[in-house]
């Protein structure tokens, strides 16, 4: 079976070459890359087409395009993109040839006051299935209020449809019913195990180095695997290929530095170029909070982090390129609330490349990377210090993919391999040590075909994944369909099967949910679940998404999607374990002795979004209505809702530019969410540890305070809502230098949103209160 899996891509490559060879004998291909003339940066998702024909394509994340199966003849190649001069170029197709072009767009000098231009996104919406995916660029991130003077991807993700954010401090993102462990995060193809800092307003990614981010909230294709809920695929841009440039910024939250420039300058007639880009950001909120935010906490806000990222790019004349990159992210919280000490560190590096073959309409892409993540937490309750908890995960991931363009159709296939080691150590409240050391290898192959037939766009795909440590093979068919009913109305559907091995090492005792560890799928599972034999150790899910999008009103786009995710098997930490799983306890039920339990569940909901963008005004409105359910086996089947089950979630974002040169910009974001579930406290009792075994005297021993809990997540917190605003002023000094001043306010009307309630003292801890911040950024 393994032999066949590994040789499937070889067979597909041979088949594609045969098809391509026959095609090229009759028709020609135009292939190339589009760059910004001033910086040399690729221009993504722009429209490239042959004038007065139906032949065209959009550039990809590398600025590359391929127009294949073009009949012999003379054409005019056109490139149009908002904000740039339209490019026109005569092209002669002689047949059986591949024409390579390297094109440069110049920034438009004409002010488009009140003029409406159809965006390339409208073109892409007809040629891409785009079900349950949001494409994000730095420009969009900067249109929401920049908390702390620093626009950040984490802040923008919170306003996406289907995304639930659990708090300003220690918050995590939950996407359409999936937990954070079920979200795959890729940075330039490299796996990132924790993308968010302890203060949930900031991610590890510097906004200004992001080229684009594709957020798949479900129904993603076979090129992605190993997770059962969502994917965040983030790509960084190359450094400036023409000149040394950068950005220096500081705010009441932290500081940041960006440097970029050419190692070998790009020229329009040259044979290649190379560049670098480097970013550094650091939080000093622990120190500045004592000066600026005493109303939050007199002891300060001890959220410290430092993020470093660097990349070197080498580009050839025909569009082939190779990137070398590395990162180091750290996060530390000192003596905060229920924690004595908490920190994590993540580091890694890798290489990715794009190869453009000389005579075929194809692309070959690859990545190989290594990353590691370690997290530790020392817990405390009052003056009592509890045990340390640590989690380590480290490993590599590599992949090789091929894309062949067959007119409006294309075939994509590839192989992936990853290996990682997990180490987990924890001592629970009964002084019982729980530890795991596991080495895991996964191998996968995938194929996807994009077929365009009149008004239909159909993308069937198939992934097969082998989990070596669990000896499980997972075949995963998937499909995406779009129907262009009219020029402005489109219907879409996506469905598929998904699997993963990793499970979360979080503890249900966490009052502040900061610890985010990883475990490999365990063998220590019950043999049966709900009366049926357990046949595998994987976590699995099935997705179904149905939606529609409409853009018949000028500058207005409406998107509506309904989704259902079924989780037939999930793995969770066993809350009810009392006995060790030994031969002596063979008659004890599994739910009382296994380290882990099996659950099933589902998530369903409706997401609505509306976007209006015209001239100086940007409006983004999102409403989500959702349910999440879980079921596990005790002495009976128990139903409950997880702590992130939020019924209603509303986000409104408005941004408006003012002044003759749009030098002023004001933005506002309002978020409203219904209350999260939590477990009520029914009462208290004396807890005896029996640390002397059977010789313990329960009549004289002093016990500790024990808590009697109510139904799991049977209560609901109060509703959450918060208004953030910001005003930004830009001072232009020259063509390449300017200063940006940003004043922002978090929680404008000082809403007291519950963070948590101390079960012992009944003290209420709130999310961030009214917090003004100021930042300056000098761009050169």
What does the model show?
The chain has 5 helices and 47 strands. By secondary structure, it is mainly beta. It folds into 3 domains: 2-118, Immunoglobulin-like, CATH 2.60.40; 133-502 and 512-679 and 714-728 and 736-779, TonB-dependent receptor, beta-barrel domain (Maltoporin, Chain A, Beta Barrel); 681-708, no CATH class. The strands form 10 sheets. It has a 22-stranded antiparallel barrel. The radius of gyration is 27 Å and the shape is globular. Mean pLDDT is 85; it is low at 1-25 and 111-120.
Brief write-up:
By secondary structure, the protein is mainly β.
Task: Jot down its keywords.
780 residues; mainly beta; Immunoglobulin-like; Maltoporin, Chain A; 3 domains; 5-stranded mixed β-sheet; 5 helices; 47 strands; 6% helix; disordered N terminus
- The second-level CATH architecture of the largest domain is Beta Barrel
What's the β-strand tally? 47
Q: Describe the biggest sheet?
A: 22 strands, antiparallel, barrel
Which CATH C-level class of the largest domain is it? Answer: Mainly Beta
User: Which structural category fits the helices and strands?
Assistant: mainly beta
Rounded Rg: 27 Å
CATH topology of the largest domain: Maltoporin, Chain A
Counting DSSP H or I runs of 4 or more residues, the number of helices is 5
CATH homologous superfamily of the largest domain, by name?
A: TonB-dependent receptor, beta-barrel domain
Provide the helix percentage: under 10%
Strand proportion: over 45%
Shape: globular
Ends apart, CA distance between termini: 57 Å
SSE layout:
Elements: H1 2-24, E1 28-36, E2 47-50, E3 56-58, E4 64-70, E5 73-80, E6 87-93, E7 98-105, H2 120-127, E8 133-136, H3 138-141, H4 153-157, E9 163-165, E10 173-175, E11 183-187, E12 190-191, E13 210-216, E14 230-236, E15 245-251, E16 254-264, E17 272-283, H5 285-292, E18 303-316, E19 321-334, E20 339-355, E21 362-381, E22 384-406, E23 409-427, E24 433-453, E25 456-467, E26 472-484, E27 489-500, E28 503-504, E29 518-519, E30 528-529, E31 532-533, E32 539-550, E33 556-573, E34 596-614, E35 617-633, E36 637-640, E37 648-658, E38 664-673, E39 677-678, E40 681-687, E41 704-709, E42 715-716, E43 720-732, E44 738-746, E45 754-757, E46 764-766, E47 771-779
Parallel strand pairs: 1-7, 11-14
Antiparallel strand pairs: 1-4, 2-3, 2-5, 5-6, 8-13, 9-10, 11-12, 13-14, 15-16, 15-47, 16-17, 17-18, 18-19, 19-20, 20-21, 21-22, 22-23, 23-24, 24-25, 25-26, 26-27, 27-32, 28-29, 30-31, 32-33, 33-34, 34-35, 35-36, 35-37, 37-38, 38-43, 39-42, 40-41, 43-44, 44-47, 45-46
């Amino acid at each position: 079976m393994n032999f066949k899996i590994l040789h499937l891509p070889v067979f597909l490559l041979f088949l594609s070459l045969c098809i391509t060879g026959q095609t090229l004998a009759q028709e020609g291909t135009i292939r190339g890359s589009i760059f910004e003339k001033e910086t040399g940066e690729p221009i993504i998702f722009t429209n490239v087409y042959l004038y007065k024909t139906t032949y065209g394509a959009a550039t990809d994340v590398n600025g590359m395009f391929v127009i294949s199966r073009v009949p012999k003849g003379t054409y005019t190649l056109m490139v149009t993109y908002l904000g740039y001069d339209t490019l026109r170029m005569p092209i002669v197709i002689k047949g059986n040839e591949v024409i390579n072009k390297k094109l440069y767009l110049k920034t438009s000098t004409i002010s488009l006051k009140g003029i409406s231009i159809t965006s390339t996104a409208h073109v892409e919406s007809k040629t891409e299935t785009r079900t349950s995916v949001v494409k994000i660029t730095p420009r969009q991130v900067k249109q929401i209020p920049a908390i702390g003077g620093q626009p950040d991807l984490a802040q923008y993700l919170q306003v996406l449809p289907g995304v639930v954010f659990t708090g300003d401090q220690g918050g995590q993102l939950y996407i359409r019913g999936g937990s954070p462990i079920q979200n795959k995060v890729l940075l330039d193809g490299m796996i990132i195990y924790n993308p968010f800092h302890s203060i949930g307003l900031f991610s590890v990614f510097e906004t200004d180095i992001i080229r684009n981010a594709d957020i798949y909230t479900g129904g993603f294709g076979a090129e992605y695997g190993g997770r059962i809920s969502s994917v965040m695929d983030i790509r960084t841009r190359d450094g400036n290929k023409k000149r040394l440039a950068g950005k220096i910024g500081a705010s009441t939250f932290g500081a940041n530095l960006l440097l970029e420039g050419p190692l070998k300058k790009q020229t329009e007639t040259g044979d290649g170029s190379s560049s670098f880009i480097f970013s550094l950001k650091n939080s000093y909120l622990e120190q500045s909070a004592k000066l600026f935010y005493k109303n939050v906490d007199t002891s300060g806000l001890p959220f410290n982090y430092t993020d470093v990222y660097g990349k070197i790019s080498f580009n050839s004349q025909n569009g082939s390129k190779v990137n070398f990159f590395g990162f180091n992210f750290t996060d530390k919280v000192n003596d905060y609330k229920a924690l004595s000490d908490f920190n994590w560190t993540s580091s890694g590096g890798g290489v990715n490349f794009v190869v453009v073959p000389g005579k075929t309409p194809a692309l070959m892409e690859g990545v190989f990377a290594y990353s590691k993540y370690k997290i530790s937490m020392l817990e405390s309750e009052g003056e009592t210090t509890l045990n340390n908890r640590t989690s380590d995960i480290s490993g590599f991931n590599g992949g090789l993919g091929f894309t062949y363009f067959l007119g409006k159709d294309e075939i994509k296939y590839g192989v992936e391999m990853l290996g990682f080691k997990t180490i987990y150590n924890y001592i629970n409240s009964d002084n019982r040590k729980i530890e795991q050391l596991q080495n895991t290898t996964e191998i996968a192959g995938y194929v996807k075909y994009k077929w365009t037939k009149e008004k239909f766009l159909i993308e069937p795909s198939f992934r097969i994944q082998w989990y070596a440590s669990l000896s499980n093979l997972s075949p995963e068919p998937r499909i995406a369909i779009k129907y262009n009913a009219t020029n402005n109305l489109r219907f879409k559907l996506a469905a598929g099967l998904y699997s993963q091995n990793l499970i979360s090492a979080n503890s249900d005792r966490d009052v502040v949910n900061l610890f985010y560890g990883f475990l490999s799928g365990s063998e220590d599972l019950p043999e049966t679940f709900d009366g049926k034999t357990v046949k595998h150790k994987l976590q699995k899910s099935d997705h179904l998404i149905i939606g529609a999008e409409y853009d018949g009103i000028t500058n207005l786009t409406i998107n509506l999607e309904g989704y259902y995710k079924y989780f037939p098997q999930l793995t969770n930490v066993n809350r009810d374990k009392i006995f060790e799983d030994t031969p002596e306890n063979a008659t004890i039920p599994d739910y009382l002795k296994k380290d882990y339990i099996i659950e099933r569940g589902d998530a369903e909901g409706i997401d609505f979004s509306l976007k209006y963008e015209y001239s100086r005004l940007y409006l983004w409105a999102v409403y989500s209505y959702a349910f999440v359910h879980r079921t596990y086996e005790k002495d009976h089947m128990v139903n409950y809702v997880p702590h992130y089950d939020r019924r209603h979630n509303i986000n409104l974002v408005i941004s408006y530019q003012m002044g003759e040169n749009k030098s002023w910009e004001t933005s506002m974001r309002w978020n409203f969410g219904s209350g999260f579930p939590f477990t009520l406290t029914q009462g208290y009792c004396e807890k005896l540890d029996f640390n002397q075994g059977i010789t313990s005297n329960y009549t004289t021993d002093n016990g500790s305070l024990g808590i009697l809990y109510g139904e799991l997540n049977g209560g609901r917190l109060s509703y959450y809502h918060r208004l953030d605003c910001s005003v930004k002023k830009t001072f232009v000094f020259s063509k390449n230098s300017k200063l940006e001043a940003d004043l922002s306010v978090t929680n404008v009307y000082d809403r007291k949103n519950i963070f948590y309630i101390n079960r012992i003292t009944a003290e209420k801890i709130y999310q961030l209160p009214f917090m003004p911040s100021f930042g300056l950024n000098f761009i050169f």
